[in-house]
Amino acid sequence: MNCDEAFEKLSARRDGVSGTAAERKWLAHHLAGCASCSRDEASLAALDDLFAAARSRLAPARLRVRVLPIPAVPAPRIIGVRRLVAAAAGFLAFLGLAPLLTPARSDPRAAVLVELHRSLPRLGASLDPERQWFDRLVARTKMLSTGENPEESPR
Amino acid sequence: MPSRDVEPEDLDRCRAGDPRGLEAVYDALGDRVFRLCRGVLGHDADAEDAAQEVLIRILAKAPTFDGRARFSTWVHRLTVNHALNFRRGRERRRRPGDGVPADLRVDPAPTPPEAAAREEARGLLDRLLAELPAEARVVLTLREIEGLSYREISEALDVPIGTVMSRLSRARARLIRHGAHAKTMMESRS
Predict the structure, then answer these.
(1) What is the pTM of this model?
(2) Long-range contacts for B13-17 (Cβ within 8 Å, ≥24 apart)?
(3) I need a labelling partner for B65 at 20 to 30 A (CA). Which of A7, A19, B102, B163 fits?
């Protein structure tokens, strides 16, 4: 055997393959008498330090972004938007209809209606309640139709 | 350094189209694939580009992996072949006189002592590996950096174990010779 074979055995020994007892004995004997192979043995041991820094090398963080698909951002819930739109529309509709549903106090016709409503309970208490009430209602309606304010006229 | 394989349940998640499966596969392989590419190519930017291409291919094909070989074996083979092809393409593109890639030069920026020592060791290794043929770089990277066994390397490269041993021995011998030569050069300058 020669130095090349000795280096192969040193290389294998570095990987945990020590060979047979006879091979180990030969290698030990060769190293004892060969300065060059002894230096190689020391150099092989020094490879650990040389490669240690490379073993700790990590992939740059941006590689992950370049490789993995971008996680999908959850879209806003359509049902939520619809509900919001429906609520807004309902509110606007309420605002729009409110004047129609709530009689304005300044409207004279409304005052007549209010009085009509208040008069109904007294209908049965009067001798000729129906007639008096009806005459008064007609008179007030006439005043309204001619533009007079029934609230300002004497009763 | 033990080689870590991808967990079977993560592969199953990949097959089911679960993004968490893809992330788990990336977490298990990302650094290793990058280091392998870096070892073969000796250049950070090239390694990043090559690793990106390999990882995208791995993640795309992982759901259809048939399981006849170990997943890590398939990954190593794919990565080494892709990095070697990338290297060949780069050598065709490189103009004469381009010289050593920029990231093989020593970074003059001040760094903490420990980080500086690590960078110096990496720089020295890069310079030494740059002198070796691709075959030697591959086998050294798989064994010395990734810690693969002879069997794993033989499966990844599709060569007999005896060939792995002889390639490793030749690669180490060349590395040591170049290292001794570089040391002599440095001592003669100083």
Answers:
(1) 0.67
(2) B14/B59, B14/B62, B14/B63, B15/B62, B15/B63, B15/B64, B17/B63
(3) B163
